[in-house]
Protein: Holliday junction branch migration complex subunit RuvA
Amino acid sequence: MIGRISGQLAYRGLDHVMIDVGGVGYLIYCSDRTIASLPAKGGFASLYTDLMVREDLLQLYGFQTLVEKEWYRLLLSVQGVGAKAALAILGVLGPEGVGRAIALGDAASVKSAPGIGPKIAQRVVNELKDKAPSVMAMAGQDESATASAVLPVTESSDAAVVENEPKPVAPSRAADQADALSALANLGYTPGEAATAVAQAARDEPDAGTSELIRLALKRLAPTG
Structure:
């Protein structure tokens, strides 16, 4: 399996690029968004890759991040979604947008991708909603260093004061909560909304990991009525 390719960008097409690695050119198919992110011809480019193997085909697909690659693989697991459709969805929404649409049940956003009809869009949302938290947790781990407090705070003129003086959180649990917070922030929730939901989820399930915290927090944040 070819997991990553790094080298000189030799060519940029409409739906693929060529990366020269030691004199060997690798054709890699990418979303519009990924192609746009690459440097000019001759610059250094690095992409995570997924190799599609068929009887008459060996084809590489490229991604900016491991999270984008994971969403691509999950999208392929949905009946009726092929590589072209998965790249179209990622090209329009990006990995964060795909996570947001699936977590919030927003089939209309998925349908906005070229070639994606309403039935396929709804199927994507329905079939991947339970898998979304684990991928969102991957994204959160990349940003955990910048995550804010994991419990609700109130501001004062001197400093932020933690409400109700909670007990210290074990380092591993704190990291899980920070990752969950970061993932929820990527979905567009405010720091206050995310912190409250994650704190409540952590109280309900003290041993929950990142993906479980995200799932429980999303349940609390889901609109009612």
The chain has a mean pLDDT of 81. The longest helix spans residues 83-103.
